[in-house]
Design brief:
Helices cover 45% and strands 22% of the residues. By secondary structure, it is α/β, with parallel strands linked by helices. Among the domains are: 105 residues, 2-Layer Sandwich (Beta-Lactamase); 238 residues, TIM Barrel. The chain binds ligand C2E and calcium ion (CA) (2 copies). One calcium ion binds next to loops.
Length: 507
């Protein structure tokens, strides 16, 4: 039994699907953010160790060169070159006095005008974009020895190579003064990079005056998530879609039929269908009111699918009340076309006899059709036996005084048919369809019908044959003198408008 309308089911499925998509994606991004931070910290730490190693080597180199620089250039060049060859990082040494270049380990002499200006500065560590040797990035380490300045040049590759080795070309920068070096070996201004502090992890070297910076913004987090959690990211929308579909499917399968009944009751979805009851001359004598559930999505639902649950939940009483109200509404519109002594049969169950309300409802029904020759019939099945207590008997009495008739439905199919006749005042017996089906042949069905007939005559109870489907059955029922007939031979239960159009005289 469905629990929700289509729109509600779609909304619920969409909400859960999108909710899962957002939750899993957020979780994924949070994991990626934490993973990236850890990864960046590890990279900075490793890069720092590699870069410090290169700079420390220059420091050692300059310490070794210091005692040599007091001599004339010619005398120390070879010794200085030996030091350079022994160093894994350094490329050249320069000895300056004031602004004058005294000596280098280069084989080519440097022209005064070609000397880079940074040689004459004061910084201990210099990031140079254009080495006089390679024309590429270089790092220079400076040491003052007496009146002379000693500079060791190491290839920039030892710095940006370290950045690249631990983190690829992007995302990690070496910053010295106002310049930044990236993993490609390109230098740029450091200011724009450092402006976005919130999206950076900065690492100050403990030993030397440089900083390492790792980008840690949304773009890097997304890229990290894509690199490391691609499968989860791709599976998430599929999972969300599956959850949505599953929710849609399950919500349509009736997680809570009780709630659905309550909703339908509030929406007045239970409607009456009327099936004609004819007399032995084939004249209309009344109708049975049969409940249908006009479901907004499922269409008409037959009573067998919901009446048992409605009885179990106690909703059957208000549902029957609505059914009687709607039947009444229709009958009022056709009251002047109804045949005299028109019987309106309503199905009730044991729960209706737990309260006096059934009496007031029947009274209200009859009072609403003043001056009409209408008989109300309450049909009771034997499925649930009524308790024969004072209250029930009082209700039967009150109904009798109102002129309401009581019928035993599906007579002969339960265990308590005879007990009913014994304990309560019954006006009508409805012979079950299963006996009418076998009425044409010699056999138990015919015998049972003959016995019911005998019983009914003796007890002065009227008889209705249920489920009359063929002309032969009609004839047979008539021959037996059964008072009333009902069945598909005459008509199926019809919407009230159709019933009146087909069976009542035209206005
Ligand atoms: P029922 O009270 O015995 O109603 C007769 C059932 O037999 C109806 O089925 C009717 O459509 C069907 N019927 C009538 N003539 C023929 C025929 O010639 N051949 C066949 N094969 N069937 C025929 P429906 O409307 O599906 O109702 C089924 C049962 O649901 C009813 O059996 C009754 O027990 C219950 N029910 C229906 N409406 C109500 C209601 O308002 N309140 C309660 N408590 N029960 C109801
Ligand atoms: Ca019935
Ligand atoms: Ca019946």
């Amino acid at each position: 039994m469905p629990t929700e309308t289509l729109a509600q089911r779609l909304r619920l499925a969409g909400l859960l699907g999108v909710g899962l998509l957002i939750a899993l994606t957020l979780l994924n991004l949070m994991q990626a953010a934490a993973g990236l931070r850890k990864d960046n910290e590890r990279s900075l730490h490793h890069a720092e160790a590699m870069i410090d190693g290169a700079i420390d080597d220059s420091q050692t180199l300059l310490d070794a060169a210091s005692p040599l620089i007091g001599r004339a250039c010619k005398e120390n060049t070879l010794a200085l070159r030996d030091l350079i060859i022994a160093s894994p990082y350094a490329r050249a040494l320069y000895v300056l006095e004031g602004n004058r270049l005294l000596c280098t380990t280069l084989h080519r002499p440097l022209q005064e005008q070609n000397l880079p200006h940074y040689l004459f500065g004061k910084q201990d560590l210099i990031l140079a974009s254009h080495s006089p040797i390679t024309g590429q990035t270089a790092i220079l380490y400076r040491k003052q020895v007496g009146g002379r300045t000693l500079l060791a040049e190491l290839d920039g590759f030892h710095i940006f190579g370290a950045l690249r080795a631990v983190k690829g070309e992007e995302n990690l920068f070496f910053i010295l003064g106002d310049k930044a070096l990236d993993g490609y070996g390109r230098t740029q201004s450091a200011a724009p990079l450092l402006a976005d502090r919130g999206n950076l992890i900065v690492n100050l070297s403990d030993e030397h005056p440089y900083r390492l910076v790792a980008l840690n913004g949304y773009r890097q987090i997304l890229a990290f998530a894509w690199d490391y959690n691609r499968d989860t990211l791709l599976v998430t929308p599929v999972l969300a879609l599956l959850l949505g579909l599953l929710t849609f499917h399950l919500s349509g399968r009736g997680g809570s039929p009780r709630r659905e009944l309550a909703r339908a009751l509030a929406a007045r979805e239970f409607v009456p269908y009327l099936q004609p009851v004819m007399d032995s001359d084939g004249q209309l004598r009344g109708c049975e009111v049969l409940m249908r559930w006009r479901h907004p999505e499922q269409g008409m639902i037959a009573p067998n699918q919901f009446i048992p649950l409605a009885e179990e939940c106690g909703y059957i009483v208000p549902m029957t009340r609505q059914l009687m109200e709607q039947t009444l509404e229709h009958l009022r519109t056709v009251a002047d076309r109804l045949p005299p002594n028109f019987h309106v049969a309503v199905n009730v169950c044991a729960q209706h006899f737990k309260s006096q309300e059934i009496v007031s409802e029947c009274r209200a029904f009859l009072d609403a059709l003043p001056g009409q020759d209408i008989r109300l019939v309450l049909e009771l099945t034997e499925r649930e036996m009524l308790e024969c207590d004072e209250q029930t008997l009082a209700i039967f009495d009150a109904l009798d005084r109102l002129g309401v008739l009581v019928a035993i439905d599906d007579f002969g199919t339960g265990h308590s048919s005879l007990s009913y006749l014994q304990k309560f005042h019954v006006d009508i017996i409805k012979i079950d369809r299963s006996f009418i089906m076998g009425i044409q042949e010699e056999g138990p069905s015919r015998l049972i019908v003959e016995n019911i007939l005998d019983l009914a005559r003796r007890m002065e109870v009227a008889l209705v044959a249920e489920g009359v489907e063929t002309r032969d059955q009609v004839e047979m029922v008539r021959r037996y003198g059964i008072d009333y007939q009902q069945g598909f031979f005459f008509a199926k239960p019809l919407p009230p408008g159709d019933f009146s159009r087909h069976f009542l005289p035209h206005p």
